[in-house]
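Record pair follows.
FIRST:
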Amino acid sequence: MKKTILLFIDALKPEYLKDMPFLASFGKKCGVCRLHTVLGYSHAAHASIWTGCYPEKHGLFLSYYLKKFKHKKSYTFEWTKPVQTFSLSLPRLLGEYAIRKSMQPFGWGKGFRPGIQPQLLSKLAYEEVAEDKSFQFARMPTLFSILDDNHISYKYFREDTDSTRCWRKENINQEISIFFTALIDYYAQSYGLGTRGLQKILQEVDQKAQSLLSDLDPNKYDIFIFSDHGMVQTKQVFDLNHEFKKKGLKNGSQFFAFYDSTFCRVWCQKHLQNKIISFFKRNIPSTYLDRNMLRKFHVPRDNNKYGDLIFLTHPGIVLASNKIQSILKVRMKAMHGFTPDYKEMDGILLSNCVTTSHAKIIDILPSILQKYNIKNLGMDGKSILNLHRKM
C-alpha cells in the first residue's frame, strides 16, 4: 500500500497559490479543492479535521469558557472592579515585555492576542488542542487514536517546535507522516494580506513544501496538502469597552463580556439580554447568534458554557478588548473566525487522490480512513477519496 503524507498548512488560502509556484504547480496537476471550514478559530477547526466532526459533536468551540461554580446563585461580577483598575493602569507602568511576562500565569505569553482580558481569565477555564497522541476526546475518536487502535504507524512533526528538522524527506518513514506549520496564520495576522512580508512567508513555506515533496513518486505516495481556514483583511477595529462605556453599560459589574477578536460572548441575567442585543444591533457590525444560528453552524449548545449571548462580527471587523491593546497598538491586520459562509474563509485541499473541487474540512479524516479500509465511526464528514485517480 502507498504511504500517506499529510501536509497541514494552517490558514493557507486558495488565493495564496499565486505566490507559491511549487504548490500552484501541484494544484494544476491534481486540481484545487476549496474547503468549507467551521465557525470558530483554529481551536475548533483543528479538532474538526482530526475527528471528522462538527464542534457540536466533538465538543470544542472556543478556547475559553465559563467555569462551573457549585454555589453560584446569580451573575455578579463586582469582583472585577479592583482588577480592572490595576490592569488598565498597567501599560503606563510597564513595558510590553513586562506585561507579557506578568500575564503568563493567565495564559498569555507568545499567544499575546487581542481578545483576551486578563481581569476575566481567572473566572474562565481553558481548553487546549494538543495535536499528538495526547489529543484525545471523551466524545469522539481522533485520527491519532484510530491509527493507534489499528496499529498503523505514524509520526507528527510540528514546525513551530522543531523548525530545523521538521520538513525533510528522511522523516517520511512511517505509514503516515504528518507535517504541520502555522507560519502563514501568524504572519498573515501580523503583516496583513497582500503585503511583501506575507509574500516572503508564502514563498518560504512553498520552498519547504518543495524540498519535502519534490521528486516523490506519486505511485508510491498519497499526498494531502490542506488547511483549516482562510483569512480576511481587517477593515475596522472596535474598542468594545469604550463603546459599552458610552452607552452606560458596565462590563464586569452589570454583566460579563469576553472578547475573542471576532466574537463577543456575554454572560448576564435575563432582564439585561434584550438591552445588550439592541446595543450590538445599533453599534457593532455583527450578528447575534441565536439558537437557530448556533444550530446552523453546528456550535455546541451546552447551556451557557460559551455565553448566554454570542455575537459574531461581520467579515473584516475585529474587536479590541481593553486599554492594553490601544496603548501598545497591538492589532491584527488580518483575522479569521468569521462566518464560514464567507468565501474568504475557505481553506484548501491539494491531493493526488481527490478529484472534487469543493469539500469540507470534516471530510479529510473519513477520506484517510477509507484508504485503510476503516469504517466511518459516526463522523459528520464523508470520504472524497478517488483511489483510482492517475496523476
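SECOND:
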Amino acid sequence: MGLRLVAIVLFGFGILWLVLIGVTFGFTTITDYRKQRRTDPDAPPSLVFMIVKFVAICIACGGAAWGKMIASCRACRSGPSLGLDRNEEKAVRDLILKMSISIDGFVSDLDGTNKWMFGSDQESKAWAVETTWNASLHIMGSRSFLAMAAFWPTSTMEFAPPMNQIPKAVFSRQGPAILRNVNTTAALNDARANAGTGQSAEPQPGGGSWAEAYVASGDLAEEIAKLKAQEGKPILAHGGVSFARSLVAQGLVDQFVLGVHPVVLGKGLPLFSDLPAPRPLKLVSSKAFPGGAVAQIYRLA
C-alpha cells in the first residue's frame, strides 16, 4: 500500500507540473490567436493552437484518472499511518444458531425432557447431521456443555461424530474450572452399563475433545467477536435456552437454522422473549420433510 501511495503522489505532481506548463504556454498561444482573429476573422487556428488544445484535453483526462486513483485508494482516505486497505480487512465467520422449535414458538418444554424433538424421520436426521458438520466450532452454555460432555463421547448416534470431532467452546463464568467437571471416567462407566442403547462401551473418536474445550468467561459480545475473527467454517450454537436467548437479544446471531416440529406445546420456554424490539428476518430457504418437520433458515433482513 505504501508504494502505491507514493506512485499516486508522484503521478499527481507530474500532472500538476504539466498543468502549470500547459496553462502558461496555452495562455500565450490563445492570446496570440485572438489577436490574429481580430486582424483576420477567417484565419484558421494555428498548428500550435491545435496542439495546445490537444494537450489540454490530455491533461484533463489525466487529472480525471488521477482522481479515480485517489478515490480507489482507501489508505488516502483513512490515512497512510493505518496501513490497512478496507478491501483487505479480514472477513468474520458467521454465527449460526441451530434450534428445534415447536409450532407455537417454544424451544423446550417446561420440564426439559423434550421428547417431541426426537422423531424417526431419517431424512430430517440426515439434514440435521449435515448441518452439524458444516461448522468449525460448536458453542454452548455451561449446563448444555456438561450434559453433552457426559453423553456424546461414548454415543453411537449419527450426531456423535460431528459433536465429538469438531472443537468446542463453552461459555461459563466458572472459567477453566468447568472442565474439571467433565468426568469422562464416570461417563464411560455409565456407557458400559448402558451399552446397546445408543452408547458404546468404549470412547468414540474425538470424545476426548470435550475436556479440551475453549472456555469463554468474559463479556459475551467480546468473546463472540474473538471467535468470529478466527478462520474456518461458521460457528454453530446449540443452546441451552438462556444462552441462546442472550445471543439473540444482543444481536450476535447471523443465521437462524430452525427445525420446526409439527407439535404444539402450549407451555414452554420461548427463544425470542428477551428481544428488546422486533427484529425483521429474511427467509433464506425452507425444506419440508416427510415426517412433517420443516427446516427454516433465516438471516437478518
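COMMENT: The chain is about 40% helix and 15% strand.
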